[in-house]
Every structure is written in structure tokens, then in C-alpha cells.
Amino acid sequence: MKILVTGGAGFIGGNFVLYMVNQYPEDTIVNLDALTYAGNLETLKSVEDKPNYKFVKGDIADHAFIDQLFKDEQFDAVVNFAAESHVDRSITDPGIFVKTNILGTQVLLDASKKYGVKRYHQVSTDEVYGDLPLDRLDLFFTEETPLHTSSPYSASKAGADLLVLAYHRTFQMPVTISRCSNNYGPYHFPEKLIPLMISRALNDQSLPVYGKGENVRDWLHVYDHCVAIDLILRRGRIGEVYNIGGHNERTNLEVVQTILRELNRPETLIQYVTDRKGHDLRYAIDPTKIETELNWKPKYNFDTGIKQTIQWYLDNKAWWQNILSGEYSHYFENQYTDLHKKSTVR
Ligand code: NAD
Ligand code: TYD
Predict the structure, then answer these.
(1) Which of 107, 111, 239, 288 is the most buried (most CB within 10 A)?
(2) What tens digit of pLDDT does each residue of 154-182 get?
(3) What are phi and psi of 282, to 5 degrees?
């Protein structure tokens, strides 16, 4: 199979590319990424010379560029991770979320339709379901939960999901969608809760907790998300949505306290700050469908996963320190000095 992975220089897409390139040497993985602030090719250093891997720099919302790429490459499958993904950024600047997340998805769907892609997989999020109350621990998101979004980010992801399902219904396109809970793990950009708290705690800086820290997220290790997407790509039923999550709900405060304990830092570093606007209270996934249909089982629970993740941040300080210093953005120019004079593959 030749698989187009979009957003493969980001957190989850990067982990997925590493997993697929190593797991399936007979498949070819083409990684298309615009290298926004969130894209970092240093994540992919270990595979960049493998014969079954190729990087292409470009924008999923650029219709002419995408059409040419699909024509040239004749992909069998597309897995769309590319997105603007940070809720806080969507509150200050919603426009780019609509462009990349909705328009970009439509451009990819059109190209997939035109060039006969055999499977289009959309990587979505549990945030399309809105939130659950804090005092109803019996409630979970199922695939039938109505879409009910809160932030410009989740609204744009829901818009993309609806387009994907519309292309299935209208044009019989072979699509699948996965909606996963919050991820954590290696190569997570240090502006999201867990890597932000780890990197700041290691620097003995204050840890900004929104509101009272009582909001609940359902945390899944990125490795388990990657395995789930691979299973859906190969064995998932066309036209179906699959929720992904491992029943690891924690309040934000519990997450931060766990990180401080593991790093042997005092709780006095915690600083309560102004709450996020429209802050979703609780996310919690019911993963019964993917467990029963595809026999998916997560390898990590939160306690084992967070230990592994903290250890990774300790062992790979250069990776996140380069991001904090801005140094990572020069990687592309340094690494691809000869290539970036050429056309699309730069
Ligand atoms: P990320 O922000 O770390 O990575 C996004 C990647 O997409 C970056 O490499 C960026 O350069 C690239 N990109 C952005 N705009 C682009 C464009 N117009 N064209 C091409 N590439 C572009 O995000 P992530 O956390 O890895 O999330 C990946 C996907 O998974 C997103 O679709 C997100 O909605 C979804 N998701 C994320 C989580 C989570 O907890 N992080 C949970 C569930 C679902
Ligand atoms: P985040 O990692 O941005 O993911 P999402 O908003 O998509 O769930 O945030 C996770 C939770 O942590 C969310 O409830 C907001 C909270 N949070 C803080 O309390 N402080 C912070 O500095 C950040 C970035 C997030």
C-alpha cells in the first residue's frame, strides 16, 4: 500500500509515521506536512533515510498542489491528521482552524474521490461531542452521542467529520472516522497540558492550572491511538465512526500533581490562573465498539503511560528544549539544503 499521512510532523501524526514505517516495510508512507509551528521534522530523524518513507512539504488546503500530488503518487489510502489542534489558539484566532480543518479536509476528500483512493481515514476527536457534567460519572461518549461542540477547534473538527460522512453518503466514498480522547506521550508539543507541565516543572517554573483544575480529561497514550488507527485502516467497516479511549479519566489537578510527584517537585509550583473561555468540563469515551469489533486493547494505563512519558522527556531534553528556544524551526533548512531548491519535495 502507498499511504498518504498528512500532519505527520506533528505529535500524533509523527508517532503514527514512526510506527507505520517500522511496522510495515512493504508499505510506502508519504508524509505531507505544512510545517506550521506544530510541525517538527526532528521527530522523524530515525526514519528519514528509510526507503519506504518520503516527506513532502505542503498545505492540505492548497487545491492545485494537492491535486498534482495525488495525480503523481496514486495513493491507496489517506490518513488525515493535519489540523490546527490547540483549543486555546482557536479562541484567539479561529480563521485558520476553519481553513485547515474544514477546507483542508474537503480538498483531500475531492482529490481522494478523483484519484480513486481506496480508503480515506479522518482522525477526529472526542471534543466533537461537547462535554459531560462533572457529577454524572455514569455518562460516556458513544458513537451515537450527538455532535455538540464548544470551541472553534471542536466546531471545525465536527464540520470536517460531517463532510467526510457526506462524501460517503453522496459519493459512496470509502471513509472511516476515529474520535479519540486526549493523547499524551513522546514528541508532544510543549504547549499542551502534559508536556507543558513536565518541561516547566523540570525548569522549576510555575505551573498554570486553569480555573480550579477540576476539569476531567480521558488520557490515552499516543502509541495506543496509533495502533487503533492502523486497525481501523485495515479492518474497520466503511462509513463507520470508531471512538478510541482507555477509561483513564483524571482531573487536571490530579495530572499536574502526578507529574510533580514523579519529578520530585513541590506542589507550591502550581499556580491557578484565569479559566479558559467555554472550558469543557469532562470528556469520557466508551470504547466498546472498537474493543469488540476490532479487538483493540490499550497497552498503557495512565499510571504506566505517564511514567514512560516523563522518562522520555528526561531522556530527550534536546528535542523539547530546541522547541522552546525556537531552534527546531531551522531543522528543515539545515537538513534539506539541497532538496528545498526543488519543486514540491523540499
Ligand atoms: P499537532 O498540532 O501536534 O500536529 C498537527 C500537524 O499538522 C503539524 O505537523 C502541522 O504542521 C500540520 N499542519 C497544520 N496545518 C496544516 C496544513 N494546512 N497542511 C498540512 N499540514 C498541516 O496535532 P496533534 O495533536 O498531533 O493532532 C493530530 C490530529 O489528531 C488532529 O487532527 C487532532 O484534531 C486529532 N486529535 C488530537 C488529540 C490530542 O490529544 N492531541 C486527540 C484526538 C484527536
Ligand atoms: P490541552 O492539553 O490544551 O487539551 P484539550 O483542551 O484539547 O483537552 O488541555 C488539557 C486540559 O488542561 C484542559 O482542561 C485545559 C487544561 N490546561 C490547563 O489547566 N493549563 C494549561 O496551561 C493548559 C495548556 C491546559
Answers:
(1) 111
(2) 999 999 999 999 999 999 999 999 999 99
(3) -145, 140
